């Protein structure tokens, strides 16, 4: 089991780079925690990394762009693996407005209030123009926060889906940057497991309602998927959508137990010194 770390940024699509963090999950593998830089005419940073690795995250971001050039910081939701460097970036990117829903702003306010004149509030269906393209705000079919807001980039056709479509993978697959290279069955089962863990309510939904949400995304014909918790999907958009529907009737993924946690900690325990 590896320690969490910020990986090397890589290109996901035209004008889009991934700033990945890799986090071990006991009994499940490694989960990616991705932020994204959209190199639009008005540059957009999507999410801000994990707080405990903030210095490394900001170094990785700085290898792609001077943060002072950022015009927008899009928060997909308020979870701390998405907002870890927000406080520093408010200072480092003085021109940047923070884009989020009312709920995301409200739920994050007690810990990291954002100046009112730096907030841009959107709802699903709204459009944000970033100079050379429109970002069409949407709520993905599955989510763990009611404030979740992704978007479709109408220039590249890329769908940014927040937590939706995530999957814990073996380490090599997680750091590959390419979900299409993962064995299809492995990816399907991992996406289903993630869906039942991150959005456990999916097993309680009516099939027609969930199918309608999924088909609405399919009708957009996204050219690829940028998930916060998966390497980039470039070709397997359809199968990834199918995995969401399969999660409705799947057995929920059990959370790691105390015994599994203790076994993991034992792996990191220093060896006792040899006795004479």
How would you describe what is shown here?
With 276 residues, this protein is of the alpha/beta class. A hairpin with a 2-residue loop joins strand 2 and strand 3. The two termini are 31 Å apart. It contains 8 helices and 13 strands. It has one domain (5-256): Ribonuclease Z/Hydroxyacylglutathione hydrolase-like (Metallo-beta-lactamase, Chain A, 4-Layer Sandwich), CATH 3.60.15. Strands 1, 2, 3, 4, 5, 6, 7 and 8 form an 8-stranded mixed sheet that branches. A 5-stranded mixed sheet has the order 9-10-11-12-13, with no helix packed on it.
Q: Which features characterize this protein?
A:
alpha/beta; Metallo-beta-lactamase, Chain A; 28% helix; 8-stranded mixed sheet
Outline the secondary-structure elements.
Layout: E1 5-6, E2 10-13, E3 16-25, E4 29-38, E5 44-46, H1 54-62, E6 72-74, H2 86-92, E7 97-100, H3 102-108, E8 119-121, E9 127-129, E10 134-138, E11 150-153, E12 158-160, H4 171-174, H5 184-198, H6 207-219, E13 224-226, H7 237-247, H8 258-268
Parallel strand pairs: 5-6, 6-7, 7-8, 12-13
Antiparallel strand pairs: 1-3, 2-3, 3-4, 4-5, 9-10, 10-11, 11-12
């Amino acid at each position: 089991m590896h320690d969490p770390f910020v990986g090397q940024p890589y290109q996901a699509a035209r004008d889009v780079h991934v700033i990945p963090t890799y986090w071990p999950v006991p009994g499940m593998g490694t989960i990616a925690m991705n932020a994204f830089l959209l190199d639009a005419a008005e540059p957009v940073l999507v999410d801000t990394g994990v707080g405990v690795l903030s210095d490394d995250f900001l170094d990785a971001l700085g290898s792609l762009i001077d943060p002072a050039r950022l015009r927008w910081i899009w928060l997909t939701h308020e979870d701390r693996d998405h907002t870890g460097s927000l406080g520093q970036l408010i200072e480092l990117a003085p021109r940047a407005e923070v884009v989020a829903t009312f709920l995301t702003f409200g739920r994050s306010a007690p810990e990291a209030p954002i100046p009112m004149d730096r907030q841009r509030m959107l709802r699903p269906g709204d459009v944000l123009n970033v100079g050379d393209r429109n970002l069409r705000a949407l709520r993905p079919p599955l989510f763990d926060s009611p404030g979740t807001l992704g978007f479709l980039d109408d220039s590249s056709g890329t769908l940014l889906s927040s937590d939706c479509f995530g999957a814990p993978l073996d380490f090599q697959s997680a750091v590959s940057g390419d979900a299409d290279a993962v064995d299809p069955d492995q990816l399907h089962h991992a996406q289903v497991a993630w869906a039942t863990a991150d959005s456990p309510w999916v097993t309680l939904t009516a099939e027609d309602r969930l199918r309608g949400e999924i088909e609405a995304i399919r009708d957009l014909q996204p050219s690829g998927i940028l998930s916060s918790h998966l390497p980039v999907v470039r070709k397997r958009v359809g199968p990834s959508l199918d995995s969401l529907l399969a999660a409705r009737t799947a057995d929920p993924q059990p959370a790691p137990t105390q015994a599994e946690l203790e076994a993991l900690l034992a792996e990191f325990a220093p060896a006792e010194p040899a006795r004479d």
